[in-house]
């Protein structure tokens, strides 16, 4: 393979990042990348642990003079969200990520890049491999399945890791330290369906597309549309104008990505085709108007297809539509303590057609535990009212702000010395692994940082080269100053 990044500085970081792009590492399929990191740690002669869940832990001793310094854990996750542009030919289980360099950005041809969180892994690998960097004892923790429920950090064996300071490298804005994050839970609704024979003569596929999507934690406040939610509104509008029979529903790609596409299939009387298309045209204009600034590319298409042998029972179809219409989406509350911070939200991430149900997976987030629980209960009540099953899984804790933090203070000093600017301390609505890590390794000093990344969890994801260099050099300087 011809390298695309070999001439880009810092080369010691980007050589590892490029190597990671060649290894399939979708959440839940990290065996290959875990084995790669295992061999890497062993090749350096360091104690390296591969946990049963495939987390990797690599321990690098302190350099001379730092033996008694506070122990540092450098942490990131090895998995990535795998999303591609519609029609783009790519198999995430075997194909390398098609890296493209354009000006200051590393991006791809039509897939997610995996800088979230491959750049953390690459930076940490470069620090582990460095022979001239002065630093305290370092433990590198690379977790699996962060993007789908933080399964790796949940399965982490606390006996395998210890430290006094934890630096999480899973943030996406240079110059901003994160000192708190939201907790979350995945709420799953299953709307049961029964099958009956159709009694109408024309079938159509309705597709909602052209939406921007985005990271449901970071971009939930940008007022972007959710295709699954829009589909519910379309179906509700249809119910008021003509009779139809639903026989397929799907939408979204990943639980933690805002759904940018949805599709449903239905059967109608041929005589209602004109009404169907007229309503679709009207609703498309309505949605474009509602989201003109935030998400103006919304498109709704109607395509004729073959009449199926079976359709959803009428009562079950109506319950599904009610569910889609009632599920809350987007920001539910803003923080009263931190200006501009989303406190509580829900993302309708994936709607999946099963044999006897439509499964809808939601990502609930909140920095206030009681409000997270209240929103989760609201979803359970909606499910009960419409006759659907409800289950809450992958519940993860919030990471609360610490008033005193020596690592935060040190980083602010180092940043001011290096860049003659103030380092901002903030909180984030997205979930980080720090909440679980606090439970696993104790209430140690924690902070999160990272280089500039944009449109993560979308095929437009891109990573700033210059920002990566600055953050990497900053991180090295911080390690030198920890004594």
Provide the structure class. Answer: alpha+beta
Helix content: 25-40%
Name the quaternary structure: single chain
Query: What fraction strand?
Result: 25-35%
Unreliably modeled segments:
none
| Average residue-wise pLDDT | 96
Largest sheet: 6 strands, mixed
Total beta strand runs: 23
Distance between the termini: 42 Å
Radius of gyration over C-alpha positions, nearest whole angstrom:
24 Å
* Count of DSSP H/I helices: 11
- Broad shape: elongated
Strand order of the largest sheet: 1-2-6-3-7-21
Give a short synopsis of this structure.
This protein has 483 residues and is of the alpha+beta class.
What is the element layout, followed by pairings?
Elements: H1 11-21, H2 31-43, E1 47-50, E2 56-60, E3 72-77, E4 99-102, E5 105-108, H3 115-129, E6 138-143, H4 151-155, E7 165-168, E8 176-181, E9 183-192, E10 195-196, E11 202-209, H5 227-239, E12 244-251, E13 262-268, H6 273-290, E14 299-305, E15 311-312, H7 314-326, E16 330-334, E17 342-353, E18 357-366, H8 369-386, E19 389-396, H9 406-419, E20 424-428, H10 434-441, E21 445-448, E22 453-454, E23 462-464, H11 465-481
């Amino acid at each position: 393979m011809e390298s695309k990044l070999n001439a880009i500085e810092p080369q010691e970081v980007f050589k590892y990042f490029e190597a990671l792009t060649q290894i399939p590492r979708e959440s839940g399929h990290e065996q290959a990348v875990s084995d790669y990191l295992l061999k890497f740690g062993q090749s350096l002669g360091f104690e390296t642990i591969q946990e049963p869940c495939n987390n990797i832990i690599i321990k690098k001793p302190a350099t001379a003079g730092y033996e008694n310094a506070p122990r540092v854990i450098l942490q990131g996750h090895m998995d990535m969200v795998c999303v591609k542009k519609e029609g783009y030919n790519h198999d995430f289980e075997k194909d390398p990520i098609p890296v493209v360099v354009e000006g200051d950005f590393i991006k791809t041809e039509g897939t997610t890049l995996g800088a979230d969180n491959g750049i953390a892994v690459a930076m940490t690998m470069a620090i582990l491999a460095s022979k001239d960097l002065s630093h305290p004892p370092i433990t590198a923790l690379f977790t699996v399945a962060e993007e789908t429920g933080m399964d790796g950090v949940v399965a982490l064996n606390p006996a395998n890791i210890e430290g006094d300071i934890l630096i999480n490298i899973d943030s996406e804005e240079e110059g901003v330290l994160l000192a708190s994050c939201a907790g979350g839970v995945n709420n799953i609704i299953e709307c049961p369906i029964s099958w009956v024979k159709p009694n109408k003569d024309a079938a159509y596929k309705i597709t909602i597309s052209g939406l921007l999507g985005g990271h449901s934690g970071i971009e939930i406040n940008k007022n972007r549309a959710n295709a699954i939610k829009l589909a519910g509104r379309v179906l509700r509008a249809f119910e008021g104008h003509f009779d139809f029979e639903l026989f397929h529903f799907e939408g979204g790609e990943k639980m933690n990505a805002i759904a940018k596409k949805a599709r449903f299939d239905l059967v109608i009387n041929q005589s209602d085709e004109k009404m169907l298309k007229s309503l679709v045209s009207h609703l498309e204009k309505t949605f474009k108007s509602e989201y003109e600034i935030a998400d103006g590319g919304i498109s709704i298409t109607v395509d004729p297809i073959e009449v199926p042998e079976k359709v959803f029972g009428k009562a079950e179809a109506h319950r599904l539509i009610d569910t889609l219409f009632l599920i809350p989406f987007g920001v539910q509350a803003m923080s009263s303590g931190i200006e501009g911070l989303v406190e509580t939200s829900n993302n309708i991430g994936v709607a999946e057609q099963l044999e006897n149900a439509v499964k809808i997976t939601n990502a609930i987030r909140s920095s206030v535990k009681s409000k997270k629980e209240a929103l989760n209960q609201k979803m359970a009540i909606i499910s009960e009212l419409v006759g659907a099953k409800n289950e809450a899984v992958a519940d993860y804790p919030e990471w609360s702000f610490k008033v005193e933090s020596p690592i935060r203070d040190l980083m602010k000093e180092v940043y001011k010395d290096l860049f003659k600017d103030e380092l901002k301390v903030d909180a984030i609505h997205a979930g980080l692994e720090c909440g679980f890590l606090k439970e696993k390794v104790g209430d140690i000093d924690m902070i999160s940082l990272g280089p500039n990344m944009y449109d993560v969890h979308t095929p437009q994801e891109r990573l700033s080269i210059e920002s990566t260099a600055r953050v990497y050099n900053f991180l090295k300087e911080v390690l030198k100053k920890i004594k």
